Amino acid sequence: MDQNDRAPGQRDKVALITGAGGMKGVGRAIALKFARLGVDLALSDVQLNAEDKHPNQVRTGWRGIESVAEEVRALGVRCLTVTCDLGDSQQIHALVKQTVAHFGHIDILVNNARAIMGADKVPITELPEEVWQHFLTINLTAPFILTKLVAQEMIRQGNGGRIINIGSDTSKRATRMGAAYGSTKQGLVALTQAAAQDLAPFGITVNCPCPGSINTDRLSYWERAQAEAKDMSYEEFRATIVKEGVDATPLGRIAEPEDVANLVAFLVSDDASFITGQAYNVNGGLLFH
Ligand SMILES: NC(=O)c1ccc[n+]([C@@H]2O[C@H](COP(=O)([O-])OP(=O)(O)OC[C@H]3O[C@@H](n4cnc5c(N)ncnc54)[C@H](O)[C@@H]3O)[C@@H](O)[C@H]2O)c1
Fold this sequence. Notes:
The chain is α/β, with parallel strands linked by helices. It has helices spanning 26-36, 55-60, 65-74, 89-103, 129-157, 179-199, 221-229, 234-248, 257-267, and strands at 14-17, 40-45, 79-83, 108-111, 161-165, 204-211, 279-282. α1 links the parallel β1 (14-17) and β2. The chain is globular.
């Protein structure tokens, strides 16, 4: 894609996306959507052990952010890949530094990564403190640090900016066995609202899409354990979860990663310049507040 072919408003923009390496993940869908708009990309993810990868990714030899980088470069944008464990503040600082050193600026930040689900999915009386702490660290503290560092950079640049925090329907309504995840996703709404007010004078907007169930290839230790206990394959058990979501959703399906990417693309566009501090549902009519 020639620089001149890029969509108005997105030309020469650079976006940093965390958790971008999933083969069917929301981060990859956002990266592809941005690439089609001509946005250059810094894609980040943690180095996963084989046992933490989704079976499909192991089967197909998926290489995480390196595979996504090949896809977006084929669409004509520049792409930097940075391995970063969001549990380590020094690695987060290095991620921002590397992105700025490579591209010279950051215009869009998407806090998309989250702690791998599973160990948290227990009643609160059984929730280990270290699991609670891990979820806080990856899902809330890391977005805070990234918001702080990237916003400092955006203010220095003087061209405004866009920050997107990927929430969840649990940002609006926590679930049973979901104290850690729900607390972090509701905390993300508070972070969004506070940052939106602090950063408004600099033309930086901060918003929080809140998807219901998404048809991703997320790995959940809980789902894997349930599948084993029921003598089902991981895919078979996952299909039962998807069916429950479909049955409960007025629009008759769960979200595809692209449904979330479409809202994100709107929120980072010039058309959304007067929208900030909002937490928008992408849930097929499942929740209304
Ligand atoms: N999948 C769903 O049903 C669903 C529903 C509502 C909201 N969401 C939200 O959408 C976003 C993306 O969801 P998904 O299902 O594509 O994601 P996912 O569960 O596949 O995880 C996203 C990424 O986070 C990365 N990650 C995990 N630990 C990390 C660490 N320590 N450091 C850096 N990265 C780390 C993973 O490697 C992965 O690529 C998340 O914020 C999630 O909470 C997902």
